[in-house]
Amino acid sequence: MSDTDNLLKRIEKLQNELDEIKELALKSTVSQDNKVDKPLDFFEGHDNIIQNCLEELHKNLKEVMSSNIAVTICTGRYKMNGRTEGWEISGKFKSLNEIPENEITDELEPFTNPRRIKIMKVLFNQSLQGNELSKLTGLVGGQLYHHLSILEKSDIIERNENNYSLTSKGARILFLLATIAGDIYGEKK
């Protein structure tokens, strides 16, 4: 079986898994008190996200298999601050040389400090004032505001009056970083 055939089979398997997940999500949800509530379509309003990713992968499959092009497609779905959000990103590279090294490192710099990751995690489901963030992160004064400033300049968090909150962009990046870290950690085991 060729590499193309193997990838087509994997795409078909992903589509079947998506259908199973949708079916389970439609059957029931669990409320705060662990009682089954009304059915919820987790993909409501966004059910085409994964389908779009699969179509994009399929569309680029022949080009990827016949050249040195790489296609990356990531998709996710999460609930943050009472809103369910879905997203997809993709990239197509003829060569990694297309992307200057300093562009990569400059964009990733805000995520190289564990204190900033902690701030992002704390803000995932709640908006907080600086003093509340200080209690939950253990960061005080200038140390806290230094990290908040870096995250705010990168549009990872936002400040409304006295409250800080994680942006949708920040949530997407947090999930991508967690996924990458989990993948690396899994390979080290």
UniProtKB/TrEMBL annotation:
InterPro entries: ArsR-like_HTH, HTH_ArsR_DNA-bd_dom, WH-like_DNA-bd_sf, WH_DNA-bd_sf
Keywords annotated in UniProt: Coiled coil
Molecular function GO labels: DNA-binding transcription factor activity
Domain HTH arsR-type residue range list: 113-158
Coiled coil: 4-31
Official protein name in the record: Regulatory protein, arsR family
Source organism: Caldanaerobius fijiensis DSM 17918
